[in-house]
Amino acid sequence: MKRNNLYWQIPLLVLLIAGTFYIARERRNEAEAERTAEQQNDPAAQAEATGFFHDDGVIFGTFYKITYQATANLKDSIEAELQKVDAEFSMFNEQSTVAAINRGDTAVARSDMFREVYELALEVNADTDGAFDISVAPLVNAWGFGFKHEQMPTPQQVDSLLKIRNQMDFSAIAKGYGCDVVARLLESRGIRNFMVEIGGEVVTRGHNPRHDAWRIGVTKPTDDSLAIDGELQTVLSVSDMAMATSGNYRNFYYKGGRKYAHTIDPRTGYPVQHEMLSATVLGPTCAVADAYATSFMVLGLNGAKAVLDRHPELMGYFIYTDQNGQLAVWHSPRLASLLPE
C-alpha cells in the first residue's frame, strides 16, 4: 500500500520540480527584459552592459570626457598621457616646457612631442600665410585675453609687439593634440570604439554604446561668455575622424560700444573683425583640425574656403553673419552626409 502511494507521489514531485524551474526561468526572463528596457532608456546602464567606460577630469584649464569600449578601466593611463602633454604645452603649468621657454630659459630640453607639435604649427603657419602663429602670445596678453589683463594697447604698442614675438602660445593646438595622444593610447590597447573630447575638440573611432556613429554637437555662436547657453546649431554624425571648433562667442568683451573677440590676427596684431562667427573643421587628426579651425577664424569665410580647396582631407562647417546680419551656414559638400536627415 505504501509503495503504491509512493508511485503516485513521484509524478507530482516531478511536476513540482518542473514548475519551480519554469517559474524561475520566467522570472529571470522578466528581470532580463526589465534590465534591457532600463538600458535602452539609460545610456549609462547601456554603456556598462556593452563594456563602455566613461572617464572625465580637468586638463589644460578645461574639462575632458572620454568614452571607450574596453575590458578594463584605463583612466590612470589616460591621465598619465594627458599629463605628458600638459608638461609640454600648458600655459597654466609654470613647470611646462613652453612656460620655461617664455621665461627665457634657453637650456630647456625639447622633447619629441614638443618638436612634433612645433613643426606642425610651422606647417600650418606657412599654409595659411601666417594666419596661425604660436608666437601670438604677447598680443593676446596685450588685448586682455591672456594671463595679463592689461588695457587696450595703443597702435604703437601693437606695432612693437608684432616685431618682438618672444613668447609662444600652443592653446590653439594643444587640446587637439591631447585628443590625438589619448586616441593613440587607446588604439595601442586594441580599442576600436571610443570618443575623446577635450574642451570641445574631439576624436572618434568606431561606434557609440548604441552602435551608432558618434553624435557631436556644433554650438550656435550666440554671445555666451559664461558658457551656460549651449544651444546647438546642428549635430554631426562623426566616426573615424577628428573635429575641432573655434569661435568668437565666448571669450570677448565690449569697450566703447565695440566687441573685441579673443581671436587675434597675427599678421595685423588686432582682433579679427569680419563675418565668421564659428569654424568647425573635421580632419584626420585633431591637432590639424584644431590649428586650421583657428586659422579659419582669422582668414574669414572666403579665405577659409580657399584653404579647404587645397586640402581634400579636411571638411569645414562655418557659421557666419550674412549681408542682412543674420546667421548663415556654409559647409563642405562632403560634409552633407554627416548632417541630420
Task: Provide a brief overview of the structure.
This protein is of the alpha+beta class. Helix content is 41%, strand content 21%.
Blueprint of the fold:
Blueprint: H1 2-41, H2 43-49, E1 52-59, E2 62-69, H3 75-89, H4 97-102, H5 112-127, H6 137-142, H7 155-164, H8 174-188, E3 194-198, E4 201-205, E5 214-219, E6 232-238, E7 242-247, E8 252-255, E9 258-261, E10 276-283, H9 286-310, E11 315-321, E12 327-331
Antiparallel strand pairs: 1-2, 2-3, 3-4, 4-7, 5-6, 7-10, 8-9, 10-11, 11-12
Helix pairs in contact: 1-2, 3-8, 5-9, 8-9
Descriptive report:
The protein has 341 residues and is an alpha+beta fold. It is built from 9 helices and 12 strands. It has helices at 2-41, 43-49, 75-89, 97-102, 112-127, 137-142, 155-164, 174-188, 286-310, and strands at residues 52-59, 62-69, 194-198, 201-205, 214-219, 232-238, 242-247, 252-255, 258-261, 276-283, 315-321, 327-331. The strands form 3 sheets. An 8-stranded antiparallel β-sheet has the order 1-2-3-4-7-10-11-12. Helix 8 (174-188) crosses helix 9 (286-310). The longest helix has 40 residues, at 2-41. The chain is globular and about 60 Å long. The model is unreliable at 31-40 and 251-257 (pLDDT under 50).
**Structure annotation, total helices:** 9
What does the oligomeric state look like here?
single chain
Question: Beta fraction of the residues?
Answer: 15-25%
From the helix content, strand content and strand pairing, which structural class follows? alpha+beta
> Strand order within the widest sheet?
1-2-3-4-7-10-11-12
Low-confidence segments, given as residue ranges, are: 31-40, 251-257
Query: What is the N-to-C succession of helices and strands?
Result: HHEEHHHHHHEEEEEEEEHEE
Shape summary: globular
Secondary structure tally: strands: 12
Name the helicity range: 40-55%
Cα-atom Rg, whole angstroms? 27 Å
Terminal Cα separation, in Å? Answer: 79 Å
Q: What is the mean predicted local confidence, pLDDT?
A: 83
Q: What is the makeup of the main sheet? A: 8 strands, antiparallel
